[in-house]
Amino acid sequence: MALPITKEKLNKAFFLLSIIIIVILAILLFQKRFHLYFKKTPFSLKLVRVIGSNDNLKGPAGVTFGKRNNVYIVDSGNSRIVKFNIKGGYIRQWGIEGKATGEFVVPLFAAVCQKSGEIYIVDSGNSRIQVFKPDGNFVSEFGISKNSKRMLIQPTSIGFAHDKIYVANSGVGDIMIYLKNGQFYERKGNSSIQGGGAGAVNSAAPNSSNRGLRKNSNSSNAGAGKSGNTGGVKSAGSKAAASAQTASPVMFKKPVSIAFSKKYIYISDYSLSKILVFNSQFDYIGSIGTPGETGYQLYHPVGIVYKNGYLYVANYGRSILTVFKLGNGYNVLKTYNFGTPGIGRDNFNHESNISISLNGKYLAVADTNNNRILIYRIFGAK
């Protein structure tokens, strides 16, 4: 009789031991998932798709995301707009070369108004902005005026903020501001910009921008690119540096692109090779980046976009992408370089403009001289 009782006890012991092991494994698995969920992912970009390689694009200069992550490409050399889905599937196209409504001469940029879903096309060669429905139907145009102080001359980009429309009027080196209906509101040029609105300066020091460099990688994971601290002058920096920057008003040379955060306006100046920073009243705050062709320096920057504390810059003259991690909207905390010049899958060949999807997950780059659009997945930018 003792043997069956011993066997029964052993079975119970094995059962209890199994339950304990299962509970321990479940706890360990939960802890691992919990740790991974809250673990901070390093900032990186990963190339996930190439669009347009087989669609006869010719010098695409602009790209923007619409609703449902649809991608609108400004195919500048073909004077048309081409619409794809995020997977690279062709949807539609519109436009031919010409001066009539719905036609283009060297279109350079596109932006989607989140509220209306309408697409604003910077028709640079015709010195105007044309507005379309997502299906390509023409809505309106603005920017043409008999008044020389209100007319656009070779505009290059457009953006929406503070219930207004901002246009980089590159042909004359100023910024034109319009109401939402396209009515002229204000012109911001070198004579109308005040300096030192916030008393803070942020200009990356050229001798410190090479600290913390890591060798670049040619893998499709752009997160293996260079990164490091830029040594930017923060608001708590020297008074001498601040007074030197704000003693004279900023002078535009060739403003080409505009980006916005909640408090600040960022303008890339192609000729100055800097990003100029303004508050919402258009008072000059300071600059981001220094001119040059090494480290994290900027050389003829073109497209810029701001998202979640990061300022992405199409460093056109160097055929790389430079990203600034910002504190307080304008202090540079860290800088990254992604990509290398070339014609391979992971290279850039003078990329012009960039865009980030509404959900902040994807970055689109108009790789102009390679006649394609590169789509990257963004990691660690929250």
Principal-axis shape equals: elongated
Strand order of the largest sheet: 14-19-18-17-16
Strand percentage: 35-45%
How many separate domains?
1
Radius of gyration: 25 Å
Briefly, what CATH class? Mainly Beta
Keywords for this entry:
382 residues, mainly beta, Neuraminidase, 5-stranded mixed beta sheet, 5-stranded antiparallel beta sheet, 38% strand
Describe the SSE topology:
Blueprint: H1 2-38, E1 44-51, E2 62-65, E3 71-75, E4 80-84, E5 90-94, E6 107-112, E7 119-123, E8 128-132, E9 138-142, E10 157-161, E11 164-169, E12 174-179, E13 184-188, E14 194-195, E15 226-228, H2 239-246, E16 255-260, E17 264-269, E18 274-279, E19 283-288, E20 304-307, E21 310-315, E22 320-327, E23 331-338, E24 340-341, E25 347-348, E26 354-356, E27 362-367, E28 372-379
Parallel strand pairs: 14-19, 24-25
Antiparallel strand pairs: 1-28, 2-3, 3-4, 4-5, 6-7, 7-8, 8-9, 10-11, 11-12, 12-13, 15-23, 16-17, 17-18, 18-19, 20-21, 21-22, 22-23, 26-27, 27-28
Quick summary of this structure?
The chain has 382 residues and is mostly beta strands. It has one domain (44-379): Neuraminidase. The protein has helices at 2-38, 239-246, and strands spanning 44-51, 62-65, 71-75, 80-84, 90-94, 107-112, 119-123, 128-132, 138-142, 157-161, 164-169, 174-179, 184-188, 194-195, 226-228, 255-260, 264-269, 274-279, 283-288, 304-307, 310-315, 320-327, 331-338, 340-341, 347-348, 354-356, 362-367, 372-379.
